[in-house]
Structures are given as C-alpha cells and as structure tokens.
Amino acid sequence: MQPVPSGSTPPIGRDLLLAAARDALRPDRGLLLTGPAGIGKSAVLDALAAEAAAAGVLVLRSAPVPEESVLPYAALGDLLSCAPPDLLAQHPPLLLRTAPGTAQDRLALHTAAVRLLRTLVQDFPVLLVLDGLQDLDPPSAAVLSFLTRRAASLAVTVAAAERTGSGESALRNRLCPPTALELAVPPLSEDAVEELILRQGAATPIRELRRIQQLSAGNPFYARELALAVHNRPQPGGRWAEEETPVPRRLRNLLLAPTRALPPQSRSALLLAACSPQPTLGLLHAAGVADPVAALAEAERLGLVSVAAHGRVRLRHPLLGAALQAEALLRERIAVHTALAAATVEPIARARHLALARPREDAEVAAALAAAADVARHRGEADTAYELTALAAEHTPAADPRQRTAHLLAAAAHAADAGLHEDARRCAAGVLTDSADPAQRVRARMILLETVGQALDEAGGLIQGGLTDAGDDPALLAPLYFWSAVRELLGGRTGTAAAEAQRAATLAFAAEDRATRVEALGLVATVQGLRGNPMAADAALELALHLAAAEQSASLLRRLALAQLDADQVPQARRRVTALLDPGAGAEGVEDTLATLVALVRIQTRAGECRQALATAERCTALVADAGQPSPLAAYAAALAEAAGGSTARAAELAQHAVDGCAAASDRLFQVRALGVLGQALLLTGRAEGAARAGEALQRARELSEAMELADPDTVRRLADLVEALLQSGETAEASTVLAESRRLTGGWPGSWGAGAVAALDRAEGLVLAALGQTEEAIAALRVSASRLQDLPLPLELARTLIAWGAVERRARHRAAARAVLAEAETVCRTLRAEPLLLRIEQERERLEPGDRAGAADDLTASEHRVAELVAGGATNREVAAALFVSIKTVEGTLSRVYRKLGVRSRTALTRAVAAPGRAVLTTPH
C-alpha cells in the first residue's frame, strides 16, 4: 500500500521504549515522542511504522524539515501522497490547488479531511505518523489539530514526535489526541552506543570509543557522526599522545547555532567553561572574567549552560564544549589555557592547561606533566598517567633525548597498566628505536612482554633480545629470567619454569633487587605447588614474605592466597584476595586486577559462594571489555562461576571459548584449567551425551597435565571428574586405571594438604565400586568422602558427594536412605543457590518415584540407559559405539549389565521391556 519506512531495522537499545510505545498505538490513546535533536525519535517512529505496515496498516507519514515550515500545506501534502490516488480524486478540496481563503473554505477543507479518513478506515486501519511537530507549517498544523482531536471517533491512530530541549515537555502537543501518551526518548546506554558504532562498520580504537561514549552522552546521531569523523581522520603521524576526538563541521554548526548571536564576553566565558574539566564561577573569575554571572546570563537563558547554587557551571551537553573548542582559533585556545593554568591549583588540570597553552617543546611543561602523571598513577588513574607522560615526552626538548625517552618509557608502562596495549607497544617501540641505554631497552622489552597477555610462548625473541641488551648485568638479567620463567610456565614446561624462576631469584639477590627476588620466589612457590611439592612451595613463599616485609606486592599476596586455597584454607584465601581489591590497597593495572578477580572467582566457587562468584565474573568481563582486550581468562572465570551457580549450558559455552583462546595463545596452564571447567559443566548435566563430551575434555586435560608434570589438587580434582565421566560412559576399566593414577599423585602429599581433592577421589572410588557391583564398599567410600568434606569449607564438593551417595543408595534400592541423603544435599545447595547441583538432585529424585520402579530400570546408569535406548531402537553394537564414541567392547559389557538388571536375555526381550508400560524410565536422561 505504501513504502515501508526506511528505518525498518529495529533501533538499538530501544526495546523497552518500543514496548511502551506499542501499547499506546490505538485510536483511543496515541503516542507523542519527545527529546533533543538526534536522540532517535525518528528511528523509533520508523520502526513502529514498519511494524504497522507489515501488519496491513495504511501509514500516512509526514516528516517536515525547518525549511518547509513556511510552505503552506507542505506537511498535509506529504500525508496525502501516501493515500491511494483514486480516493484522493473523490475529495477535490484536498487537492489544494489554491489555499482556502475564507473560514468557510477552511472548514470545508477540514471536513473533507475527516471524510477522507472515514473512507480510508473502511478499507484499512490507519496510522498517522507526524515526525517533527515543531516544523509543521501552520496551515497543515491547523488541519491536523482538527483531525487528531477526533482521532478516537475516526478510528485513526496517531504517532508523533517533537524536538524538545533536554528534560523539556512538548509545546505542540495540541497536535496530538488529548489522550496521547508522551514518552521522552532517553539517551542510549554505553553498551548500545558501542553496538551502534560497531554496526556502522567503522573500526574505532577503544580509547576513542570511550571518548565518543562520553561526548555523545547517549545521542545516537552524535555518536555516529563522531565515529565517522574518527574513522576518516588522518593518522596522528608519529605523535605519542592521541589527537582529540574531531567534531565534524555539521555537528559544530548544529550545536553552536544558538551561540552565534551571543556577545563577545559571553562567548569568551563559554569557551573558558568548555576548556575546564570542572568549571565554576570562581574559576572563571580567577581566569579573568570580571562578572561571570553577567557574562553567562544570556547563555543560561538560551539553555546552553546551567549554574548551580554553589557556583558549578555545566554546559548543556558534553559535545557543546568539544564543539566550542574545535571552533576556536589556536590563539584563542592558547589564551584561554594560559588563563586557566594561572587560575588552577589542581596539578593534573593545571599541567594539561600548561601543555595546551604552550604547544611546543618546553622543559618546564614536560616536568609539570610528569609530576601530574605521578599524581594520577597514585590515584589509580593509569590511563590519565599515560596521556600525561606521553605529552611530557612530546614537550621534552630535543636537546635532552635521554629525558624524552624516560618519559616515553613511563608512558608505555602506564599504558600497559591501563590495558592500552597498542599505545604501550607504540611507546615501547619508540624507546627501542631511540635509546641505546641497556636499562631503558630492557625495560621497554619487558613492557612489550606485559602487553602480549597469555601469548608469551611466542615472545621468546623479546626475552632473547633483552638478554643481549643486558650483557652480564644481574640487575637487568634478573627480571628477564623471571619473564622467561613465566613464559615456560604458561607454555606447560614446569620443570624449566622452576629452574628459570630460581635463576631469576639468584640474580636478583646478586643485584640487591629485592622486588624482583620477591616476585621470582613467589613464582618458584607457584610452580612447586603445581608440581605437587607444597613444602618447597611454602619455603619459597616464607622467604618471599620475609623479604617483602611491609612492601608485599599484589602478585605475591595473590600467590599466597592460591597456595592457601590448595591447602583448603578457603576463608583465609578469600580475605587475602578480597583485601587486594580494596580501593585503598594500591593502584593495580588491568592485568593485575584481572588476575586478582580470576583468583577470587576460583576461591568463591570453592567456598560455595555462587552468587558472589557470578558477580565477580561479571566484573572480569566488564574489566576486559572496558580495556578493549578480550581475554580467555575472563571467559574461564565466567565459566567457573556459571558451573557453580548458573547454567551448565552457558558454563560449557564459556569454557569452550576459554579453551580455544588459551590454545591459540599457547597458554597450557589455563587451557588445562578451562578444560577442567568444561568437563565439570558437561558432567553436571547428568546426561550420557554430556558425560561423553566431558570425558573427551577431561582426557585432554589429563594428557596436558601429564606433559606438564602437574600434581596439584586441581589436577587431582580433574582426574576425579574424569573417573565419573568414564563411569557414565561405561568405561569402568579405564576409570579404575585413572583412579589408581590419581592415588599415586596424592601419595607424596604431606599431612592434610589437598584434603578436599583426596575427598573427591574417595567419591570417585565409591562410584567405581558401585559400577563393579560392590555396593556396600561403595557406600562406605562415599561416607568417608562426605565425612572428610564435613570438616572442610568446601560445601559444593560435599553436595556432589551426597548426590553420588544418594544415586548409589537408589540403585541399591535403599529408597529411604537415598531420599535422606538427597534431602541433605538439597539443603546445602539451596542455601548456596547452586542451581546446577539442584537440577542434578531433581533428576535423582525423579528416578525415585514409585512409577519408575518397575523392572529394576532405576538400577541403570546413564550410559546403560542410553545403550538400552539405542539397542531397543534397532541399533547394532557397532552403531551404538559410534553414536556414543566408545569401543564395541564397552558396548558389549554395558549391554550385558543392562540384560542382568532388567532380567532379559535377548535384544528382542529388551525391546519389549522398553516398550512395556512403566518402562518409559529408559528415556529419562541421567
């Protein structure tokens, strides 16, 4: 009937607004959208009109522009152009060859418009879309006002939009039905702005993206224009600091149109306010404005600024300030920043003003910028510290290249801490290009190592180059060998990692470098713990803590907390890591903060703090998103939290992402851990298919762990899960082999170290014994596991053991005992809000229902159920083996157990048993 409006794609971030608007789209209501220019009113109307047109509604639409407001009946003509031409021919007064001259003529026109709408609604529902009430020509406005007041009786729906100032109500709402719902279109969220820019297709660096989010303040039109300007801007051309985000001419003209008529003193005061991060009347006065109140009066009347009672000056929109600065001449900006530098006491703001007031090499300015950077870093503002030190490098005179390089090196370090890896790499590369000083070159290489994230295995050239630069200087060699040890550890070479870390500690001792020695000893402790040598780990940690004294680093305290976690000292580990995240604990960089958050998720999941773990995992995700550096570690943390208190499907998806990311970065250590979470998540589904996939993931983890010579509690817990997965797949012999292998790993552990992991093996042993038909021995082993865990702060492990115990009791037909044990597990899990385990408990309870009792079908394990289903469906043993990814021998053994438990002797009898009433339990997933 008419073209679908051009913006038919649903606008980003407007789901709630669209839902509210749809409710108002009926003849007895109506809709009026309000908001400033560019906020997205037209996009919402376009989406509503497109939906209406798709539903068979006749859409009559007008979208006038300011230039058309002087053209009589221009808007009415747009509306009529959407109506069927044959109907228009029946209403001559609406052809508007001449404007109505008398009141009678105007009445005839209005009456004819009513008749036209009555005729239209006989054939179609009609939606009248008026996009831009503020620009309607007066004659059209008069007709539309007449019509919209009668919309309900005409059975016509009205949807309109009017441009208003921020927070203002509509002025022309008389052009809408009296009952119309007025909705202010809100700014987009930062996430929606990011999605909008990504959909636009222009690659935008993360720092520029954040700046666009800040300047646009949720206005989609502003965001799109700024992103396009950034995309089209020439490269900075060798500058270490980024250029300001450009404000295109079209936006400047739009925003600055109201300022053109202001007197010079008002424009000067506005520019001063725009150039200050926190303008006040007092600051403007100190900067030379004799009477700031009078100077801003006209701008305040126009709504360009607001002045609070305490004197704080706020520009109407963040982009207005950027537009004022972009429009000003260089000499004007220099004069303004000179005045503000003299009037400002705060060191960071003063340093910025000095730099902008003297856009040339200047040693005094460079020193002020470097000092301000120290202040920013102390406050934890690493990104600001980077910008200031990069500016300090630019302002350093060419006659002092060493100082310039020192500033550049500091800028690289701050950028790395802020997660601005591209900036850090650019600055560090500049140092390697310009400096011949070995210490500076080694430090630059170490910063480059910090920016490669988990992909250290591919960064051997950086370390080798650093060793060449360092010569025989132990002070330079020590940190390089520390990085070499980290590289070896992530690459899965724990033996070499231990040797390199010890070498780093020895060199640091020779160089009297306490900080590096402490870090190296902490790494020695971590590696020894992973290799199952807790006594050696404790000795290294004790020495590191003694050396660090009151200056303990975040990484050392984090290593200590994770060592406590291995020893099942969960509350102590939680307190130590939580303290590291306290704002007063000291400024950490993005990588350090991420490592701390990941450690906290590991601790919280062990402690059964499911909700808290999910919240911490969200912080991990937000941190890497803000830094623009996607990290498999954040995915690993999120998977771990989901497996404890969220969705097993989501946990498996995130864990697979972490596995793939770690594999791509050659980070074997976290690849193994991510495989463990993947296996656990799949195992917790309780389904045969999940068990088969869990077995594959955990077998891969087992292989990697053996190659890495891992023997820590985490490794043993993964092996315990592998035993369970193998049993669910019918691989009893292999499960027994893995269990024996695991026991050998724990044999050398001292005292109660890793008691929780040993309890997990007791649970696995109980399940193996149950699969071998040794029910009483199985229950005894599970009782031992539960007893161990009752004394440990590991409630999720206890719940898993109770669920396994309940399942064994059920298969042994000890129904009352099964119910009691499962009830205890449920109490634990409900307190913890451990949703995946609650689902497992529900699955077990379903199998306890009396209707499931027939034929001993509830004796079948998950793998036995699946084999029985496939065989009953006509599959051969070979086909079953292929479907379940197991051997034919395993299928034969499983089928023999199924025959025995169901009391049948042939495939035909099995088929009848499955089809018989009461046998539907065979299709219930385990």
From TrEMBL:
Sorted UniProt keywords: ATP-binding, Nucleotide-binding
InterPro entries, per the entry: AAA+_ATPase, AAA_16, P-loop_NTPase, Sig_transdc_resp-reg_C-effctor, Tscrpt_reg_LuxR_C, WH-like_DNA-bd_sf
Record Pfam families: AAA_16, GerE
SUPFAM superfamilies: C-terminal effector domain of the bipartite response regulators, P-loop containing nucleoside triphosphate hydrolases
The UniProt record lists the keyword Nucleotide-binding: yes
PROSITE patterns: HTH_LUXR_2
Residues annotated as domain HTH luxR-type: 853-918
SMART domains, per the entry: AAA (SM00382), HTH_LUXR (SM00421)
Protein name: AAA family ATPase
Native source species: Streptacidiphilus cavernicola
Lineage: Bacteria, Bacillati, Actinomycetota, Actinomycetes, Kitasatosporales
